[in-house]
Amino acid sequence: MQQVANYMYYAGGGGLILIGLYMVMAKTNLVKIILGLSFLDTGTHVLLVAIGYVRGRTAPIFSEGMAETTPVVDPVPQAMVLTAIVIGVGVLGLALALAIQVYRHYGTLDVRNIRGLKW
Amino acid sequence: MRKAVAFMLVVVVGAGFCAVLANIPFGEDKVNVANRYMRNGVRETGAANIVTSVVVAYRGFDTLGEVTVLFIVAVAVGAVLPPGKKPAGEEKEEASLIVRTGSKVLFPFIVLLGAYIFLHGHLTPGGGFQGGAVIASGFLLLYLAWPGQPVGRKAFSAVESLSGLAFVAVGILGIVYGVGFLGNFLPLGARNSLLSAGVIPIIYVAIGLKVGAELAGVVGHLMERE
Amino acid sequence: MVSPSLLVAIPLASAFAAPLVGLGSKKLAKCIPPLALAANLVIGLLLLPRVLEKAIVVSIGGFPPPFCINLMVGPLGLSLAILISLVGLLISIYATGYIKTEPTEKYHALFLLLATGALGIVLTGDIFNLFVFFEILCVASYGLTAYEKDRAGTEAAMKYLIQGTVGSTFILVAIGFLYGLFGTLNMADIATKVPSAEPLHLFLILAFFVVGFGVEAAIFPLNAWLPDAHSSAPSSVSAILSAIAIKTGVYAIARITYTLMNAQGFLIFISLIGIITLVVGEIAAYRQKDDIKRMLAYSSIGQIGLIVFAIGIGTSLGVFGALFQLVNHALAKCLLFLAAGYMIYRAGSKKLSDMQGLARRMPLTAVAFTVAAFSLVGLPPFAGFMSKLSIVSAALKTGRSAYVAFAAIALAATVVEGGYFFRVVQGLYFRGGSKGESVGPTKAKEAPAAALIPILVLAALVIAIGVYPQLVTNVLDHAAKELLDRGAYITNVLEAL
Predict the structure, then answer these.
(1) Where are the domains of chain C?
(2) Residue A116 belongs to some domain of the structure
(3) B 118-177 residues with CB < 8 A to A
(4) Rounded CA separation B101/B119 (Å)
(5) What predicted TM-score, i.e. pTM, was given to this entire model?
(6) What pLDDT does C242 receive?
(7) pLDDT for C147-168, tens place per residue?
(8) Does residue C149 sit at the B interface (CB-CB below 8 Å)?
(9) Is there a domain that residue A33 lies in?
C-alpha cells in the first residue's frame, strides 16, 4: 500500500501525458486535439513537481521567523514548471488562434476534412 | 486503425516512463545542485521566496526566454488573425446589468491584487507571471462586460515592448556594472522587507506588466472574432 | 572585449523594439532585422580567433557554474552562430522587399525572435535553457508559417504546431527524468555524472530526446509537417526554416548524444535513421512535378538525412563532413528558396511546367539557382562536392560494413537528387522542345535589387567555398573536434571560475 501511495503522483502525471498523447493521435476534432495538447502539458508539469518533492519538507519560502536552515523541498523543478506553464499557455493560445483561422477557411473542425495539402 | 496505432504507441511510451521512474524514488532526498540554492539563497539574493530567487537570479536567463515566448505568442496571434471586420448586420449581445456593474466595481480590485502579487514576488508565493495573469483576467472581465470594444490595443503593444526592453536593459546594466549579464547590482537590503533582493522586484514588475498586457492582448484578439 | 551574451541580447532587444518602432514608421521597422543581424555577424567574427584557441564560458547571473546558466561559446557554437547571423542577415535584406502582407513589423519581430532562438540553442550550456530557446524557435516558426493567413499556410502551421508541441513534451519529460536522476541541469555537470547511471535509463532518455528534437529536425517518421510548412510559408520564411531551424534540431541531438551521454553504441542507429530519411526525402522530391517549393522541402528532408547519417559516423572526419554539409546546405537551400520565391512570383505559378524558359527573363536568378542546385548535388567546383566527399570517405574509412552500405545508398540517392534538380535547371534554360509555340511566362522580368543582392552574395559564397574550402575548413575542423571531446567540454565549463 505504501508502494502504491509512493508512485501515485508519478502515475497521475504520467497518466495525463499518456491520455493527452492518445487524444492528439486518435481524435478527429481539432478542439479535442488541442485539448490533448493541454493534457500533455498538465501531465508533464505534475510529473516534474512530483520529481522534486522531498518527504517531510516544507515550501521553499523563508518567511518571517523561519530559520534559514529549515529543510525545504527542491525549488528547481518548481522554477522549471513555472517556465513550462507559461510556455504551454502561450502555445495553447496560438493553437486556438490558428484553429479559429482554420475554421474560417475550411468551415469544419474535422481533421479528416482539412486536407487541402496533398502528400 | 488510427486508434489502434495510437493505443500501441501509448503503451510503449508508458512502459518507457515506468522503466525510468522506477529509478527516481518518490520523496527521497536526491537534491544536488539545489542544496546551494536552499542554504545560501536568502543570503546571496536577498529574496525570502527561494523559487523566486531561482527563477530570477540563478536561472534568470530561462525567465528571459519564457517572457520572450509569451511575446512571440502575442505578436503571432496579432499576425495570424486578419484584422477583424465584423459581419454586417450582426448585433452584439449586450452583457447583463449585473455583469456590467460588477465588472466596473471589481476591475480595480483585480488589478490591485495582481499588482500586489507581483510586487511581493520575492516575499510571498507568486511573482511576475502570476500577478500578470490576474491582471489579464481583470481585462477579460471587461471584455466580457463590453464585447466589441477592444481596450487599448496599441497601449498593450507598447507596454509589452517597453517592459521587454526594460528586462533586457536590466540585464545589460549588469554587464555595465561588471557583474555579467543579468547579474545583481543593487543592494540586497533587509530580509523580508519590500525593498530588498536587489533587481528582483524590478524584474518582476516588468514581467508582471508584460504578462498582463500580453495575455489581455491575446484574449482581445481572439474575442474580436464573432 | 565583447561579451558573447550580446549575441543573444542584441537580436532579442531588437525584436522587442520592432513593434514599437513599427507604431511610428513601418519603413524603419524593416531595417531593424538587417542591422541587428549585421551587428551579430560582426561580433561573432570578432570573437572567432579567441574562441578557436579556448572556448569562452559566460555565466549568466554572476554565479559559478553549475549553479547558474552558462553560455558555452566554443568553435562549434560560434561557427553555427556566425552561420545563423549571416543567413539571417541575407534573408532579412530579401524580406524588406518581399514581405508585403500586413502587419509587417510583426513579421520582422517574429523573424528576429526565430534567429534569437536559434542563437540561444547553439550557444547555451544548460539543458533546460536549450529547451526554452528551442521553444522560442518553434513558436516563432509556427507564427511565421501562418503569416500569409491563407488556407495552405494556416493548415500547415496548425499541423506543425501540433506535432511540434508533442515533440516538446517529450523533451521536457526527458529533462525531468535527467533532473530526477542527476539533480542538475547543467550539461557539463550531467556529462560528469552520466557514467553512474544504468544504460537502460540513459537509452530511454536519449530516445525521448531524439524523438522530441527529431520532430524539428524532420527525421523519418517525424517529418510529416515539413513539406506542408516549408512549401506554404512565404519564401523568406521557408528559407530560414530550411536553412537554420531544422539544423538546430540536428545540433541538439548531436550535442546530447556526444557531449551529454557519450552514447557510442547509439551512433549506428542514428546513421540508420539518417539514411532512411535521406532515401525517403530524395525519392519524394523526385516525384514532385507540380510544386517547386514542395520539391525543395523534400530535398531538405533528404539533406538532413545525410547530415544525420554523417553525425552518426563518430569519427572526426565524419563529424567534420556533417558540419560542412550543414553549412553548404544552409547556404544552398536558402539560395534556392529565395530564388524560387521570385521565380514563382514572376511566373505566377508554382508548377515547374510554368517556369519553362524562365532563364531568358531572369538570367541572374536562374544562374544563382543553378549554382545552388549543382552545389547540393555535389558537383565540383561548388561547395557541396567537398562536403559529400568528406562524408563518403569518412564512412568508408570506418571499415564497418554497415557504414559502407550506407555510403553506397547515399551515393545512389545523390543520383536521384541530380535527377530532379537537372530537370528543373533544364526546364529553366530550355523551353519544352516539341511544341512549336513559346510556352511559359512572357511577362516575367528579373527580381528586384533587394532580392538580387542576397541571392548573388549567397551564390558567390557557394562558389568561393567550393574553390577555396580553406575558408571554412579550419573552423569546422575545430568544431568537429570540440563535439567529440567531452573531457575538454567538461573542464572548460566546470573550471571556468
Answers:
(1) 6-494
(2) no
(3) 123-125, 127, 129
(4) 28
(5) 0.94
(6) 92
(7) 988 888 899 999 999 999 999 9
(8) yes
(9) yes
